[in-house]
Amino acid sequence: MSTINVRGPFNDIAIAAVYCPPKHNLKANQFEKFFHSLGKTFIAGGDFNSKSTLWGSRLTTTKGRELEKVLQANNYAALSAGSPTYWPTDLRKIPDLLDFFVISGISPSYTDIQPSYDLSSDHTPIIATISTSIATRIPAPRLHTSHTDWKLYKTIISDKLATAQKLKTREDIELATTKIIDILQQAAKTATPVKNSPRHANHLPSHIKQLVAQKRRARAKWQRTHTPEDKRLFNNANNKLRGALRDLSNATFASYITSLKR
C-alpha cells in the first residue's frame, strides 16, 4: 500500500493505492484496521481481489462479504465503473470486476468513475474524478439520433457509391476505405437534424447506477419465486435506492444554496 495526502476544499484527503493478493483470505477486522489508518476522509482504490454484487461483481465471495461488513458498518461507499476489470487468460475463467474504490468523507455525488483502455494488461485501470460540484458529463458526439431519417441516409449512400472501383493495390483499398467512411459520415450528418440548444446530460453517480441494477435483479428474482426472503431482499434494495436518491437530491440542493451565497 502507498498513500499520499492532498488538500481538499474542507479536509485533507488520504489517497491510497491498494493491492490484496488473492491467496490471502482477509477478514473484516483487517480491512477495518487498514481503512481506519487512513483517517476520516480518504479514497482507496486498486485490485481488492474481492467480489461482491455491491460493487458490480458477478457474485459475492467470502472475502467480498468480509469487506461488505466493513463498508456497511462504517458508512463507506464502494465506487466502480460497473464493468469487468479483470480479463483472465485462462479461457475457463470468466471476466469479473475486482478493481474499485472505497471512499469515506466524500459524497459519491461529486465523483465519477471511468475505465481506461489505453494500457494493455489483464486488468482494466479505472480513473476516479473528484470535483467540488455535482458531477456532470457532456454527452459523447453521435452520428445519428432517434430523429435520423434512415431513408434519406440510404438514398445518399446509394447515390454517392461508385458502381465500379479498382481494388488491385494497397493504395486502392486505403483510398476506397477512406472514401466510404466519408460517405457514411456525410450521409449521417445530412440525414440527422441538428438540435438548436444541446443540453448537458446529468451524469448519475456510479453507486446510484449499481443500486438501480441491484433493485432490478432483486425484483426480477422475487417475481420469479414470490418467496418472503426474496421479497425482503427486493424491499431492502428499493429502500437503499430511495435513500441514495434522497441524499443526491439533498447534495444538489446544498450545492445550489452555496452557489447563491457566493
Give a written overview of the molecule.
By secondary structure, this protein is α+β, with helices and mostly antiparallel strands. Among the domains are: 139 residues, Deoxyribonuclease I, Chain A, CATH 3.60.10.10; 42 residues. 42% of the residues lie in helices and 16% in strands. The strands form three sheets. It has a five-stranded mixed sheet with strand order 1-2-3-5-4, with no helix packed on it. The longest helix has 34 residues.
Spell out the key features of this protein.
single chain; five-stranded mixed sheet; two-stranded antiparallel ribbon; alpha+beta; 262 residues; Deoxyribonuclease I, Chain A
What are the segments in which pLDDT stays under 50 over at least 5 consecutive residues?
Answer: none
Identify the CATH class of the domain at 1-139.
Alpha Beta
- The helix content is 40-55%
> What profile does the largest beta sheet have?
5 strands, mixed
Q: What is the architecture of the domain at 1-139 at the second tier of CATH?
A: 4-Layer Sandwich
Task: Summarize it.
The chain has 262 residues and is of the alpha+beta class. It contains 6 helices and 9 strands.
List the helices and strands and how they pair.
Elements: E1 2-7, E2 12-19, H1 28-36, E3 42-47, H2 62-74, E4 77-79, E5 99-104, E6 111-115, E7 126-130, E8 136-137, H3 150-160, H4 170-191, E9 201-202, H5 206-225, H6 228-261
Parallel strand pairs: 2-3
Antiparallel strand pairs: 1-2, 3-5, 4-5, 6-7, 8-9
Helix pairs in contact: 1-2, 3-4, 5-6
